[in-house]
Fold this protein.
Amino acid sequence: MDNVASNLERRTLLQLAAGLAVGSALGLAGGARAAAVPPAATGKSGDFDFLTGEWTIKHRQWKNKKWDLFTGEATVVGILGGIASIEELRIPERNFSGMGLRLLDVNRKLWADFWVNSQSGVLGSEPAWGSFTNGVGTWDGDDVDGSGKPLIIRGCWDKITPTSCRWYQASSKDDGKSWQESWVMDWTRRKQ
């Protein structure tokens, strides 16, 4: 697998806009173009409290022009009074694990989402930045596809209940006019 495709797949696991900065809309070093919509400055302590706990996850990933289905699990811990959330994701059938690290920039009211793959042990280059509005968390980031063409990667948290939630990723090659889903994670809280 070429380096660009390998990096894109790594970023898709959690928040996958984590490979590049959101762009000039936030005053950060940009990728191929500005993100479709700058994130709303609505972040607050406790936004990720819903995710704290033990989870079983059903994954659906678009790969080789078909949906690949597999299961995984996660343990999530909130710390620092709700301004940090640490996720350990495990996919035993793929011999894969990684860590999502979400940190609230209290002054900017935006969440930074980092990813660490257990194979490298290194944080992604820049976090994706986003926030929650009306119960949906959205993180848009710039990237390029395998041929070097610019695209926007979107990661979203939605369908949040006390016992379940969903994270999904989609990409847009037309500046946000249309989206292609590429990864869906349906989370179910494990009974304690």
User: Anything to note?
Assistant: Confidence is low (pLDDT under 50) at residues 1-35. The first strand starts at residue 53 and ends at 63. The radius of gyration is 15 Å.
